[in-house]
């Protein structure tokens, strides 16, 4: 069987599995966030935290809860790292330095999982389990909670301004979604030989008689939530390329499936919650279209050798595992940069100029194909609202989104959301490349205009694109252990995560204070028994089921609904995709021309 056929079978298998779980998992997540009953363990946690699960929050209250919780997580994780040398299971490792602990704490709290260190050398197993793995769960749950809060703002018909309860969303996301899926994925990985051990390592003798030591630890459990939560921080420097974490082509497929499954299925959740499944399918189509184009581009670039060594190997195999090959490496690279994950099974710095530029571009699109857990959904919804506004102006239709008017406050908030990431990327890159110390940190440098200097610029651009998009992957040729990179990348990750979250929740609040402009048949809702909302701020699954099945969000009846631009179907999906590409193109083309494009043309 040829490599191409094997790769196509892998892609086909992945798509078939995603299609099979799309409906059940998507609807399950919808029930999780709309259910009225709490599990026993959830009630216990609410009592311990003195949280009233029936209390609804405004967007301001929701923001304060998110920021307060994240601040506490940062302090706890920072303290664990600094004190790890005095804690059990230290294995002789000292506490992490202040700058590195600061950067790492921000990285994992923001769901970025950028690593400026070698995990097997710096972090103890206790820090990995009680610090980093815990953040893998809760930071992912925060992203899902924010996405659901925005959906609540869209579907709120009573103009109350309430968007749910953050603490309920957080707990349910961890206990009912992330934890069960992690157990399934970890079990599959264990069956393939992924290491799961309480020991820190073992000694063995090489064939020439040398004594060496291999690091082991709780890899399978952390690999599972690393991918499911679109986190990316590995327990080994080689990340998901290491055979202890990803030993077989099947485990590679499982990990790619894990990092895609929740972001993809959240589009079904969205369609269910807004009572029009066409909405979710349209978003899914846009995500899938971008993902497929990026995958095709990387696969083609990496399959065509450039240079004598690559020509001898028959492909661009530098930095890639032979057991995965070009298809498995390209599939992983596109999926991880498109989902804000950052895990890697190959060295992105060793990709061809075209292949490396494509995965960089994948992040610069805003990571909405399909994006991170939660962040992908609220990111593409912000772009969808901008598309409605632009499309409405083009065709003379009212700028409304599922019955909610997109006026000046809503557009300002959405536009600010879109501008945050480019400002952080371009400012961070510009400042860094003029610093003398940056040249010393670059694995590639040289006279201006040479391939080394151009790739060195790409390394810096990739670093800030990864940090601002909360991705976490890197062009490994850039050394980022000095105080400038630790601090600047840490601040970039912090602002890149929480400023957009604040803006998304503000947008949710603006929408939640509006009554729909006739796009939901309220008489049908009342006849179905949906006269209010459940404790989560959305119609409960029992009371709302008739409306979910019978009342699409744009099926109705008031005259102003007829003047609204439809937000589903091929035409709108094409306009949304064009808007995403156009915004990124206008913003980043000059920077890309100075880096990957120039390198590819040499």
From TrEMBL:
Transmembrane intervals: 6-25, 59-80, 133-155, 175-195, 250-269, 281-301, 376-395, 416-437, 494-512, 570-593
Biased composition (Gly residues): 531-543
InterPro entries documented for this protein: KdpA
GO molecular function: P-type potassium transmembrane transporter activity; potassium ion binding
Key word Kinase present: no
UniProt keyword Ion transport present: yes
GO cellular component, one term: plasma membrane
Subcellular compartments: Cell membrane
Membrane topology: Multi-pass membrane protein
Region span, Disordered: 521-544
Record key words, sorted: Cell membrane, Ion transport, Membrane, Potassium, Potassium transport, Transmembrane, Transmembrane helix, Transport
Purpose: Part of the high-affinity ATP-driven potassium transport (or Kdp) system, which catalyzes the hydrolysis of ATP coupled with the electrogenic transport of potassium into the cytoplasm. This subunit binds the extracellular potassium ions and delivers the ions to the membrane domain of KdpB through an intramembrane tunnel.
Family from the record: Belongs to the KdpA family.
Oligomeric and partner information: The system is composed of three essential subunits: KdpA, KdpB and KdpC.
Protein name: Potassium-transporting ATPase potassium-binding subunit
Gene: kdpA
């Amino acid at each position: 069987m040829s490599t191409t056929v094997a790769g196509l079978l892998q892609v086909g298998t992945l798509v078939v599995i995603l299609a099979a779980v799309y409906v059940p998992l998507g609807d399950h997540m919808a029930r999780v966030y709309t259910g009225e009953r709490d599990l026993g363990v959830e009630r216990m946690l609410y009592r311990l935290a003195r949280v009233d699960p029936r209390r609804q929050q405004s967007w301001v209250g929701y923001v304060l809860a998110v920021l307060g919780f994240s601040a506490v997580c940062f302090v706890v994780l920072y303290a664990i790292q600094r004190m790890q040398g005095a804690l059990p299971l230290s294995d002789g490792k000292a506490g992490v330095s202040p700058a590195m602990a600061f950067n790492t704490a921000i990285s994992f709290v923001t769901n970025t999982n950028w690593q400026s260190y070698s995990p097997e050398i710096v972090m103890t197993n206790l820090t990995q389990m009680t610090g980093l793995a815990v953040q893998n769960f809760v930071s992912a749950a925060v992203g899902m909670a924010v996405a659901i809060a925005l959906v609540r703002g869209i579907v709120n018909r009573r103009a109350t301004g309430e968007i749910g309860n953050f603490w309920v969303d957080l707990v349910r996301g961890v206990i009912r979604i992330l934890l069960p899926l992690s157990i399934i994925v970890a079990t599959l990985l264990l069956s393939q030989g992924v290491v799961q051990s309480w020991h820190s390592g073992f000694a063995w003798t090489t064939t020439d008689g040398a004594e060496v030591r291999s690091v082991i630890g709780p890899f399978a459990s952390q690999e599972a939530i690393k991918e499911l939560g679109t986190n990316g921080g590995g327990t080994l420097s080689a990340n998901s390329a290491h055979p202890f974490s990803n030993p077989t082509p099947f485990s590679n497929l499982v990990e790619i499936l894990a990092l895609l499954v929740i972001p993809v299925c959240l589009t079904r959740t969205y369609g269910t919650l807004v009572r029009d499944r066409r909405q979710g399918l349209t978003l899914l189509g846009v995500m899938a279209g971008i993902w497929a184009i990026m995958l095709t581009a990387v696969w083609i670039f990496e399959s065509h050798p450039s240079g004598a060594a690559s020509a001898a190997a028959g492909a661009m195999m530098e930095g890639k595992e032979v057991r995965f090959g070009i298809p498995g490496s390209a599939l992983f690279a596109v999926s991880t940069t498109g989902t804000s994950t950052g895990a890697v099974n190959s060295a992105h710095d060793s990709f061809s100029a075209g292949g490396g530029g494509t995965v960089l571009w994948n992040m610069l699109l805003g990571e909405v194909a399909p994006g991170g857990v939660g962040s992908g959904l609220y990111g593409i919804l912000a772009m969808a609202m901008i598309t409605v506004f632009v499309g409405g102006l083009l065709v003379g239709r009212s700028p409304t989104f599922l019955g909610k008017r997109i006026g000046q406050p809503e557009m300002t908030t959405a536009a600010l959301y879109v501008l945050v990431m480019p400002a952080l990327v371009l400012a961070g890159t510009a400042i860094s490349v003029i610093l003398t110390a940056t040249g010393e940190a670059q694995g590639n440098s040289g006279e201006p205009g040479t391939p080394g200097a151009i790739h060195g610029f790409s390394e810096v651009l990739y670093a800030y694109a990864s940090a601002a998009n909360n991705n976490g992957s890197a062009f490994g040729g850039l050394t980022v252990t000095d105080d400038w990179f630790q601090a600047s990348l840490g601040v970039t990750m912090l602002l890149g995560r929480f400023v957009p979250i604040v803006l998304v929740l503000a947008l949710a609040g603006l929408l939640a204070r509006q009554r729909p402009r006739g796009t939901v048949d309220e008489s049908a809702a009342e006849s179905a028994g949906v006269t209010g909302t459940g404790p989560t701020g959305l119609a409960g699954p029992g009371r709302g089921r008739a409306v979910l099945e019978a009342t699409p969000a744009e099926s109705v009846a008031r005259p102003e609904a007829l003047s609204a631009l439809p937000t589903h179907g091929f035409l709108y999906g094409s306009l949304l995709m064009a808007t995403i590409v156009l915004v990124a193109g206008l913003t980043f083309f000059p920077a890309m021309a100075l880096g990957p494009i120039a390198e590819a043309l040499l």
